[in-house]
Amino acid sequence: MKLLDDINVTEISNNCIGLTFNNIKHLVDIFGKNDEILNIIEKKLSVEAIPKGNKIQIFGNSKSVIIAKYTLYELYNRQKIGMNISLNEVNASIRLAREKMGKNNKEISYKSIIKTQKKTILPRSINQNIYIESLYKKSLTFGIGPAGTGKTYLAVAAAASFLETGTVSKIILSRPAVEAGEKLGFLPGDMKEKVDPYLKPLYDALYDCLPDTKVERGLANGTIEIAPLAFMRGRTLENAFIILDEAQNCNRMQMKMFLTRLGENSKMAITGDPSQIDLPNKFESGLNHALNLTSDISEISQISFTSNDVVRHPLVSKIIKAYENE
């Protein structure tokens, strides 16, 4: 999806460019009420943006001006496909523009789009773009990195999209329940009630992408299945999108068992953060072991996120970096 037909660029000087938007119906949302979005861009990029009608001039050092240009490209494209321009989308657009500058990319590419009944999702970092492409193209994708990078949310969103289009017939969600040293047997309730607290992030993502009634109906009829990791042994999972979250808390045998469940016409996404292992010291993380074993298998992708990919509150990225530098 290219923007060259919609936006004309005039190079006024090394420190100034002009943009002309041929389609003006999106400009109010892009510039923001009382130009509040432009004010955010000005502050974050140390540029001056002067709008006039369907035109805008951007002043600043040459690199910041180009980043601001790509930021407006990003925002325009997001608004054009119907996304609401929130502060998160502004921050995402600035992040992508900076990353593209660093990689010398000259055009904005939107190959990776997840569409569900409730929302359209665009990547908020280049690694997210690569990750979404892998979820669609590869049979098995590892999403590795710190909290807040979208690795779990995007996997669930892709699964919801696959289910809605009929590409798969069911979604299977799994997660080891070892946080805080607790075991399922000590928790109250039936198996679903025991496992549900551990799967709350997956549920939240499902309800964000699919209508509530569809999620409830899917849980009732098995189209959406909660499968405790311990109960996966002996199964072959066909025509399904299978997600294993918090995979760093699997031991080696559990990970081998899970990986070998993959059946025909299925997708598998495995997410985890190797820096957050809760296993007893005597157990090696099955995630780390599997990453080493499968690194040379072309049908498998391993996408590594960093603190730079964090899409939550900007403070989360700073906190993660502080722990990394400890």
Describe this entry's structure for a reader.
The chain has 326 residues and is an alpha/beta fold. It contains twelve helices and twelve strands. It has helices at 27-31, 36-45, 62-80, 87-102, 126-137, 151-165, 191-195, 200-209, 212-221, 252-259, 286-294, 314-324; strands at 7-13, 16-21, 48-52, 55-59, 114-115, 120-121, 140-144, 170-174, 224-226, 240-244, 267-272, 300-304. The chain has a six-stranded parallel beta sheet, with helices on both faces. A four-stranded antiparallel beta sheet has the order 1-2-4-3, with helices on one face. A two-stranded antiparallel ribbon has the order 5-6. α10 (252-259) links the parallel β10 and β11 (267-272). α6 (151-165) packs across α8. The longest helix has 19 residues, at 62-80. The radius of gyration is 22 Å and the shape is elongated. The mean pLDDT is 84.
Which labels suit this protein?
6-stranded parallel sheet; 12 helices; 326 residues; single chain; 40% helix; 12 strands; alpha/beta; elongated
